[in-house]
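Researcher: Please predict.
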Amino acid sequence: MHPTTNIESMIIHSYLTTFGRYLMLMGRTFSVPERFRMFWKQYVKEMEQLGVNSIGIVLLISFFIGAVICIQMKLNIESPWMPRWVAGFTTREIMLLEFSSSIMCLILAGKVGSNIASELGTMRVTQQIDALDIMGINSASYLILPKILGMLTIMPFLVIFSSAMGIGGAYGTAFIGHIMTPDDLTLGLQHDFIPWFLWMSIIKSQFFAFIISSVPAYYGYTVEGGSVNVGKASTDAVVSSSMLILFSDVFLTQLLS
């Protein structure tokens, strides 16, 4: 057998093994919580830690991205044949269809994903997860399920805040930079608005939120070795989450459009 074939078989086997372990972990995760009071407490805590604490960076990045998109659209499609509201229209479409869901989730994959992977990885190497298992607690459900549900709950709000702040950044360029008049921008933002695009952005973000929370949780939960491997697991979690978001974005966009 050719050496290349052996390498490909090993790679495929490794991916399938990882995927199988991931599915088994998710099967343990999505079980009925033993104590709903404790679960609710963890759920609210994870919503705050993963979602609410990310609002600042989401708003900041969205504001400047909205401003930059508006400037680029206005300067690069300037033409006597183009309506003056085109820059506002394209800014709205880009923010709704791609940035506020896909690109923002890529950013959150770095922030939230590394946080989840390092937290669970540290608990694994310090044997805190083993202690929970010995006590008869379903550690996967106790630690991972609140993170997934908390991220799924808070993500639609982050999408809406991101879109609104991106439009605010566009208005900032109109009022401060005098790139275009606010009236032209408003006309473009209101032109031919399709409400389904907002819902499509929210639906896509739900899939991405599940990836952002579950994939890093798998890498952190299954860490083996010492603290050095925690850093490696955190890096692998961010890379894998980002790649899965990009791949799924292609299929979801084609499916929902």
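Model: The chain has a mean pLDDT of 85.
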